[in-house]
Amino acid sequence: MADHKGSCHCGAVSFNVKAPTIIKANECNCSICKATGFIHLIVEKEDFTLLSGETDITTYSFNTHTAKHTFCKHCGIKSFYTPRSHPNGYSINVNCLDLSTIETINYGKFDGDNWEDNVDALRKDLT
């Protein structure tokens, strides 16, 4: 495990996440991930620390309102959020991480367009 720093585009929201140096990330084709280009690294809540920007975050939710999509109020970047699949953790946008602490990123795909049919495999894959 290593400490990885991340932030939104303007830097108002910054965080630290503990994760391996070889990261398994997932690209999702659901409506919101496809539109924003979010690449998922799911971590446990205790492996995430918000360093700055608590008051610079705004939240959007839809459908079941389980997922809490958090965005920087200034630049609009969603660098992390609380996912519906793992409501007791965070999904980190790999595109928002400082790559200097990452050895390799292995990209997978998740069929979020058919979320209900595929979420159990995602949950199992990440445990």
Question: What's a concise summary of this model?
Answer:
The chain is mainly beta. It has helices at residues 31-36, 115-125; strands at residues 2-7, 14-19, 22-28, 39-44, 48-52, 57-60, 68-72, 80-82, 89-93, 104-110.
Structure description:
The chain is mainly β. It has one domain (2-125): Metal Binding Protein, Guanine Nucleotide Exchange Factor, Chain A (Beta Complex), CATH 2.170.150. The chain is 13% helix and 43% strand. The chain is built from two helices and ten strands. The chain has helices at residues 31-36, 115-125; strands at residues 2-7, 14-19, 22-28, 39-44, 48-52, 57-60, 68-72, 80-82, 89-93, 104-110. The strands form two sheets. The protein has a seven-stranded mixed β-sheet with strand order 6-7-8-9-4-3-10, with no helix packed on it. The longest helix has 11 residues, at 115-125. It is globular, with a radius of gyration of 14 Å. It starts with a strand and ends with a helix. The mean pLDDT is 92.
List the helices and strands and how they pair.
Blueprint: E1 2-7, E2 14-19, E3 22-28, H1 31-36, E4 39-44, E5 48-52, E6 57-60, E7 68-72, E8 80-82, E9 89-93, E10 104-110, H2 115-125
Parallel strand pairs: 3-10
Antiparallel strand pairs: 1-2, 2-5, 3-4, 4-9, 6-7, 7-8, 8-9
The profile of the biggest β sheet is: 7 strands, mixed
CA gyration radius, whole angstroms:
14 Å
- Which regions have little confidence, pLDDT < 50, spanning 5+ residues? none
**How many angstroms does the end-to-end distance come to?**
16 Å
In CATH, what is the class?
Mainly Beta
What's the number of helices? Answer: 2
Mean pLDDT across the residues is: 92
Strands in their spatial order, largest beta sheet:
6-7-8-9-4-3-10
H-E order = EEEHEEEEEEEH
- Helical residues, percent: 10-25%
The counted number of beta strands is: 10
CATH architecture: Beta Complex
Give the domain tally. Answer: 1
Per the CATH scheme, the topology name is Metal Binding Protein, Guanine Nucleotide Exchange Factor, Chain A
Strand residue content: 35-45%
Tell me, briefly, the overall form.
globular
Structural class by secondary-structure content: mainly beta
